[in-house]
Amino acid sequence: xxILIRNATILAMDNLHGSTPxxxxxxxxxxxxxxxxxxxxxxxxxxxxxGTGKLVMPGLINSHLHSGEALFKxxxxxxxxxxxxxxxxxxxxxxxxxxxxxxxxxxxxxxEALKTGTTCITDDLFxxxxxxxxxxxxxxxxxxxxxxxxxxxxxxxxxxYMDTIPFSREFLPxxxxxxxxxxxxPSAEDFIDFAKAAYREFHDRSGRIRFMVAPxxxxxxxxxxxxxxxxxxxxxxxxxxxHIVETKVQGCTGPAHYGxxxxxxxxxxxxxxxxxxxxxxxxxxxxxxxxxxxxxVSVVHNVISNQxxxxxxxxxxxxxxxxxxxxxxxxxxxxxxxARMFDVMKAAGLLHNVSTPDYSRxxxxxxxxxxxxxxxxxxxxxxxxxxxxxxxxxxxxxxLDLQSINFLPLNDIRNHxxxxxxxxxxxxxxxxGEIAVDSGRxxxxxxxxxxxxxxxxxxxxxxxxxxxxxxxxxxxxGIAAIHRHCNGMDLGIHRLGTDSAWV
Length: 503
Prior knowledge:
By secondary structure, this protein is α/β, with parallel strands linked by helices. The protein is built from 18 helices and 18 strands. It has helices spanning about 80-90, 100-115, 135-145, 170, 175-180, 190-200, 225-235, 250-260, 260-270, 285-295, 305-310, 315-320, 340-350, 365-370, 375-380, 415-420, 445-470, 475-485; strands at about 1-10, 20-30, 30-35, 45-50, 55-60, 60-65, 120-125, 150-155, 210-215, 240-245, 275-280, 300, 325-330, 330, 395-400, 425-430, 435-440, 440. The strands form three sheets. Strands 1, 2, 3, 4, 5, 15, 16, 17 and 18 form a nine-stranded mixed sheet that branches. It has a five-stranded parallel sheet with strand order 9-8-7-6-14. The chain has a four-stranded parallel sheet with strand order 10-11-12-13. It is globular, with a radius of gyration of 22 Å.
């Protein structure tokens, strides 16, 4: 199958053109871009697309999301991360979720992502009380069926809950501590065996699905698990995907547990390198940033989620200056409440303007677009196959209508994309050379039927989850006290700072 797009405005994001638009043609053959130029000849039987008045650009890459939260969209508000996690990632009273719900839940995310211009996602999957290969397969099958590109994980935690949060023994109720101490997480060996089985089963499925290794965070994983996971990631050449210092509570965790920051701990373990992707990095120190830059890590900036959960403002300019690769993500579907990457781009382009009056250090539109495309591909270690429009790379791209209201009047296309566009101008979404969305219609599936099925299952699921929420509410007062303590609220020193959220 061939597709020729003629006379389009092209935003390639490659080394030659960067974010400077130019006019030309794009020839797609099979799953890849075969030619970029002008006056290209269409192969026999090719689908011809008139690109006049259209913008062709790389598909957006959502470099950090948790699809497991999709059924909690619009459910929670005004909770810091640690309190919010009691209900979105409960530790008490959970039972295994049916594979069909996981499939439909994943479809819900993928449908919204594709429709709004995301061609590639990194989904850090977690199931409570423990993930099975069958559950992971349900999500992978959904992504395979709909035709999106995805990197998926089996989220790893092998430390007991009480050991993952500082001051838990001082603040959590004694009866809750007793229950939590009786819960035994899977071992490091269990997780490594699971990862090996998942890699064999899912990696490189359909040429679009990849498996990654995802130890949750250094405070939630033993050193043994971190180093074993890193060994697998290096062997398989997939990301070691983790979370580090999203909140001030987590910023207190490293000194409390290790006598050093969590980044320093990762460095000392030998698991800080260019194959590592870190979500958040809000509370990193200047020394942390230097170590991260020297290592060449990627950081996923989850700007909307960080705002909703009050986590803080990541020091993005410092990270970029140090040589860190920047990507963008929605984070969890209920700490953002959507999978729309254009929302994330706009927020990233605006938020840092209030972190410093030095406007030379604000993010510009080109930097935001790069983070949402090529930077995202680099964070998933697939920048050799996607993230920019280049001959030989996979044909993952968007066709947008430049005659839409979002581009009127047409000034700087890059500014329009970051500050004006919401996905409404998208006419076609192409993934791996296949038209996945055409005029708002998902081409591979009956969207209405799938969503109707999910709606039928939701009352029973929410009734179950409501009981789980009630059980975990027993921890809320203690977790709130830990939040106040780590943020200095009990000492009256909670105030807005610059270049990070609180000082």
